[in-house]
Amino acid sequence: xxxGELDNTPVGxxxxxxxDKGLVAVEWKNAHNEFDNYLQRFSHSVTxxxxxxxxxxxxxxxxxxxxxxxxxxxIDWSYMRExxxxxLLITYRIPYGQTRTYGEIAKQLGNEHFSRAVGRAQAVNPxxxxxxxxxxxxxxxxxxxxxxxxxxxxxxxLLKMEGALLx
Length: 167
Hints:
Largest sheet: 4 strands, mixed
Structural class: alpha/beta
CATH superfamily of the largest domain: Winged helix-like DNA-binding domain superfamily/Winged helix DNA-binding domain
Shape: globular
Number of strands: 6
Number of helices: 6
Number of domains: 2
Low-confidence stretches: none
CATH class of the largest domain: Mainly Alpha
Radius of gyration: 15 Å
CATH topology of the largest domain: Arc Repressor Mutant, subunit A
Order of helices and strands: EEEHEHHEHHEH
Oligomer: single chain
Helix content: 25-40%
Mean pLDDT: 91
């Protein structure tokens, strides 16, 4: 497992983790303990290596400067549990500038009553921004739950940047 950083983004400084297969985690630097705890779940040694994580950092920088709407780097989905992976794969496919409700994702999973389970899977998304859980909203159109950066303020900023919310 390799780690790196992306500093001075509009939503704060970020920590990145990658395996040989792709990106594994993105976390805000102010949540460094949570990031370390997440990485300790795996039985791999963790090495700081910006040359490995630079590709991910570059594409994230392009996203923040509105030059990129879709990430092309590989994601290592193997560190997720099956249900979470299914939820986050659907979330990953939500286009830039669009939103989906928790219920819409639940329906795609085959059970409209899974909305809360979808919310729980979003809450532990290891790659916010890349797997755009900020694009998931309540059925009332409201912004509910976001653990990254400054919480709902960050979610609102990201959706406005993408043109999914009017200012």
